[in-house]
Protein 1
Amino acid sequence: MLALVSPALLVILALIVLPVGWLAWQSIYHDGFTLENYRRVFTEDIYWRSFALTFEISLAVTVIALLLGYPVAYLANALPKGWSILILSLVVLPFWTSVLVRAYAWLALLQRTGVINQFLRYLDVISEPLALVHNTFGTVVATVHILLPFMVLPLYASMQKIPGDLMQAGASLGASPSLTFFRVFLPLSLPGVLAGCTMVFVLCLGFYITPELLGGGRTVMVSMLVSRNVELYNQFGAASAVAVVLLASVLAIFVAVSRFISLDRVLGQK
Amino acid sequence: MTRLSPARLALYVISALVLVYLILPVLIIAPISFSSARFLTFPPPSFSTRWYQQYFSNPAWMQATRVTLTVAFLTVVIATPFGVAAAYAISQSKLRIMRVIHMALLLPLVVPIIITAVGIFFVYAKVGLVATMPGLVLANVMLGLPYVVISVLAGLQSFDPAQEMVARSLGMNRLRSFFAVTLPQIKSSVIAGGIFAFISAMDETIVALFISGGQYQPLTKRMFTALRDEIDPTIAAISTLMTAASFILVLAASARHKKSG
């Protein structure tokens, strides 16, 4: 049996375990051991600001995705099967379009001469085009779009497990629909909320293409810091240290969340 | 059915708006790609296939397309048997280490892709695999493996291993009984896993940005560079073709799933 897994395991060891290990090594070793890279990451302003911005954006994206995703998951759960399949297909449809293609689509929609600005000017709502992209706003709009399926699917899965008669029991005991929702349904859907929020937050921490193409160079997220240190400045040690801190944050979040719900659930395997 | 309460109405309206937000960007690309205008105007002034002609007549775009298709094809050819063997071993073995191995095989989904990309770049730089075809294929095999493993494990869950025992008790060896009894029954999950690995390789961008170069640049890398500089509607044409390819493949994968029940 071990012989059967070895080809796959070898690929994983050589192409992800070794490279990440290499990064970790490189972050502390350069002609001798040094913590200089970490000192820079934790004290220099540019790194600090980028980490803070990344966490802020990820938090905003997670909250927005939850607010947008919850009603959709709720409706898909409440409607008869045919409708819920339609809704879920529409949710996963963009999932199968390349992130790059969607970044292009958002540029086409949001830029100064883009579809939305042209439409608003046609309606005479605005006289000057709005700055919808090449800033944090555009980054958040496109990022939420990409991550929303990761929110809706775990939400829907957890709502499916809530027995429908619980709501009826609440109603028969005289509770209003909103009371049964807030006292019965919402608490029971919390595992899905936690799973969805974790996935969205963690994926957002490492986002690269969307902020790079839609952020206009002003929204420097951590991933861009990594790539610039490699591509522009040849600062491999600094890039590695930033990557290690990012990876440590991601793993810490997974470990913290796994105390509450099973990780299989977060990774969407159940 | 109860009467439509205000809360219910709000639920419908909000959900409809969210679905429009999800779908609109996917739908907007096709009309742009068939527009004659150099700059994005909506609605498009007139129908034209000039961006498609530009794409098909440009040697650089064609070379990138060949690279993408070759990489995606080779990724499937390698990742599928590797993934099937691993999933089979994980589902059959009772060794405790298998749980750890299972988690390890899902690492590509957990580690932020930018970190994987930079790490691979450093390793490739040492061993001379940067800007090579084997380097690109290997990285995509790694990224595609989790999809095959997850899909095949799900297929094996509904498969009764006693059937394979029967075949073996009748004198088939393990390998033959796997190909004769097990594989035909999990065929659709294997094909679905392979299709997802293909799509993953076709759409992969970040690792390619770091490790591909020269004549071995896939479409996504060229598209990314082009998007950074200016918005060329040729990209809309390529995007439309890529999206159509993905959708056809996903439909094929889910059709196979339905057939197997």
Note: Chain A touches chain B through 77 residues (CB under 8 Å).
Protein 2
Amino acid sequence: MNRRSVWTVVSAIVVTLLGGCSPQKYSANYTSGLVYCSESDPISMNPQLDTSTTTADATAHQIYNRLLEFDTETGRIRPSLATKWSISQDGLRYRFLLRQDVGFHSTSYFTPSRLLNAEDVLFSFNRWRLPEHSFHPVSGGYYPYFESLGLADNIADITALSPFEVEITLKQRDSSFLANIASDFSVILSAEYGDLLMSRGTPEKIDRLPIGTGPYQYADYQKNHYIRYDVNEQYWEGTPASESLIFDITPKSSLRLAKLMTGECDAIAFPARVDHQVIRERDDLALDEKAGLNIGFWAFNTERAPFDNPAVRKALAYAIDKNTLIEAVYFDSATRAKSLLPAASWAYQPDAQDTGYNPVLARQLLDQAGIEPGFSMTIWAIPVERAYNPNAQKMAELIQRYLADIEVEVNIVSYDWSTFRRELRRGNHDSVLIGWSADNGDPDNFYRPLLSCDAIPSGTNRARWCNPTYDELLDRALQTEDIDIRKALYLKANELLFDKLPIVPIAHAYRYQAYRKELSGMVINPYGGVRLGGVTKHRD
Amino acid sequence: MSRFSFYDDEAHPSPWQHTWRAFKSSHIALIGLAVLLLFVFFAFFAPLVAPYDPIYQNTEALLIPPSWTANGSIAHLFGTDALGRDLFSRIMYGCRMTFGTSLLVVIIAMLIGVTIGTVAGMLSGVRSSVVNHLLDALMAIPTLLIAIIIVGILGSGLVNSMWAITLALIPQFIHHTRSFVRGEMKKDYIQSSTLDGASNLQLFYYSILPNMFETLVVQGTLALSIAVIDISALGFLNLGAQPPLPELGAILATGLDAGYLAPWSIAIPGISIFLMVLSITIVGDGLRSALRKRVNR
Amino acid sequence: MTRILFRYFVLFTLTLLALCALSFSLIYLFPAEPVTTLTGITPQNLIQHEALINQYHLNSNILVQFGDYLSELFAGNWGVSLISGQPLSKEIMLALPATIELSACAMFIVVVIGIPLGCYSGLRAYSNADFTINSISVTLYSVPVFWLAVIFILTFSLQFGWLPLSGRVNLLFDIPHQTGFLFIDILLADNLDKSAALSDAFLHLILPTLSIALMSTASMIRITRRSIIDVLNKPFIIAAKSKGLSSRQIFVRHVLRNALLPILPLMAMQITTLITNAMIVETLFSWPGIGNWLIQAIYQRDYSALRMGMLAVSTLVVMITIAIDLFNRLIDPSREKFESVTI
């Protein structure tokens, strides 16, 4: 190597490092396929078993369909596997008329012999609904979404009126029922496949080698590496344009962006907030944003002393400056949260009470509660980017500094995502920075899973807070369809929450989707997981 | 005897002076030494010279570029990170953390390794052979693997990663001490001391150790550069120092997250680690060739 | 000869036994239930807990347990991963070849570039060329691999867009897993544009290989150079010179052979360094190797995976080391084991 070429390389490196970069696309001979870089491994291939966005992203809209679906634009519920539905006068009986031309995936491990019918709907619902169902205990027997909403208890019966008509009877009115049926988790599985697996004695395969009706079918999965899907040629909504879909699992957000820039990914999950500007400046990348139905919060484990004392929780809430957190962590792409609901919800209360930044008051409250200076606590910070909290680690470090000012020591705890959730469910935390992305627009979808008593065992109530008055308010709100009455009840719930403060609401964030401009049909789904069925890639 | 000698005695520089003279003759080694001394200075006096607290978060000043760029501010020489912490102070403390712990690790490993190595070298026969074989096996296990196992047992943290690296470094010291002691034991001056009735301990302390000292220093610099790289690698992988501790590898890992917007937060910690290792290597090289020159005279 | 072979066989068995004992002890050292670390199954209830304990004789004498552990190991029953529930043997067999492939390519570069450059600079010792090579190698030796990898990604993937940065091959190539060695798998696969797949795999290999090879190449240059200089100073070289041999003849016949012999055991140590570096670099290039796998396992606190991963990697490394050592012993019986390291 002569001296000049050495200098060329050296200066190129220096320019890259100090001057920022204007990367170009690495090109390879692609087959027709779509690569989506996701952030973590799904817990299971069946979203009934898990509430995390990662699992929902990888499965809900790729492999499966639901009876009903949200329109991503309007938020209205629209037909999917059910073409029509009707509700009885008393609001207790729901009838669904099913499509008659829907086939299940035909893969190397299963070939369906019949089309979708009412039996499959019954099978899918009864699996999580009935503890005595043969598939209920398979893969752990936890169905956190349905348990946290109390849905299983509220369904009195499901019957097939005809091969393509299903009736669901509720015990009590539930004005959020249709929304729940349309959420990511209410997927329809194949009863025929279930029977086959049961007869072979390997029922747990239903969650590892999934069969659904969605646009893509499962082909291969290697942990920490990729999930491969093949196209479902017979998809009832029309065959997707790409031959295959690949989830490239890339935990580091900077690497995901790098792969997006080189074209190794066509779209990425959760672009880091610091990188938004970089993405916007590039001609070949697109960044969409949409107000999200979510909330990022700081939950205290109210089962542990001293966090069982509302005064202590309040004191800690007063010690942090939410505006700074929003600025530093969300780069102002979020709005300050006062209550659980974002402004997009109809029950949003603009004048809800909020905790301000007041370290002096915070220390006083702690003194009154008998918390000595030097008290030490843990903050668990989710290890992945989420729309509701793009960088919990950083937020935890900021809070660590704030609490140091009131002489509270903080240890930040973080594990890998699946371990984190496992440990969190055991309630080993003092407090946790986490959040919730709504699965539908109904306020009940925030209030109930996050803080109701039922949601403690199902693991979505991170504060492990149980208050009968609160639960009663929520139940009453579901008994009526009258928006104003419901709104008044949720205002009361807000007051109660401000008084007890089991969680400190921090921010409602926008949702972002970064992808290459060759893609079309990429829309943000505010009501849950990413939908890649309708996405096409234009080849240059 | 008279108090002064009439004839000038020939100056007899000590072995150390010889080495220093030979070392001094290489300019590169001197520059390396100067840089190394700078790091040593940081390691000891970072709290006195650093302009800011390394974990103080100035949320008004996020991701400020270094002072030599157009948008830089003179208040933050190397700019700030995504939490508004002054990068220059963090790097200074980082040198302290990385270099200091590495030094500590090497000293501990050296003490243990030399002790075991000497015992193994003075013994012979079956016991020595067993030690030898076990060492070969231990030496083959990658440091990272040892570190991962220790982190698995004790949890991640700077101290635990230090244990891992100490464990990984010890075999090399044992090995060298052992072969050195074995070589020396065959030499005449040891034989004569033995005939004078010196015990093994005395032999080691009065005869072997003084001769071994210099090779130990050379070995130590080699181990030090390995330790610096390993500590920062573990910090980088988030298995060693945990945030917000300013450790160079951990700073680099944090810098990676904002790497597109703030490339300097990748460049500066990396260059610091690089310079630290480079200066250690150069000084080690210089020492080695100086020793070689002295011995070959 | 047979005696040496026997000695090495005993040595290998003993070391393997020690490693197995170490991995066995991890069952009790890791902060999880011994049953869980051993089997990878988290018992859901007491009955299952009891059943597992009985099945694996965990309440019997520790030696019996160890014996049991060994027989399970050799039967190929390594337990399942705590997180994914997959058999560990399968996961390790997927990951290990990727790392071996990467390290082997890097080793190839180390030997092909390191030894000739080292020879050259050793023969021209203290000349300008030697000085340049030496400074470059000292510099390369000091660059931390993880930083080097990041810079490579920034420069060659993002700035110039020449090379890809993720994994072993573009995931859109659906290459069926057969041997685990990608290039062989591609050649064995049907329904595939082989030349496109091969060139894509080659492009993917360049950056990770270079990132780990450079540091070891630097060491190799220095080791070779030192060894050549040492040999050049030996009396038999002067004798050869005085006999009137050409410098080419001297180099090929006398210097090279004598200089390379002591390097061999040091190469074994370079392999350890290479594998360590490969493990770090894998995480940056999403390389699905054993290092990436182990580091994910520690992040996930997947104790059963850590236990087996540790055993697999250390066994591999020890095997290579002992094999090289044995080879060295066989071709050069006079030599003491492991020359002292001089660089």
Note: The first helix of chain B runs from residue 15 to 24.
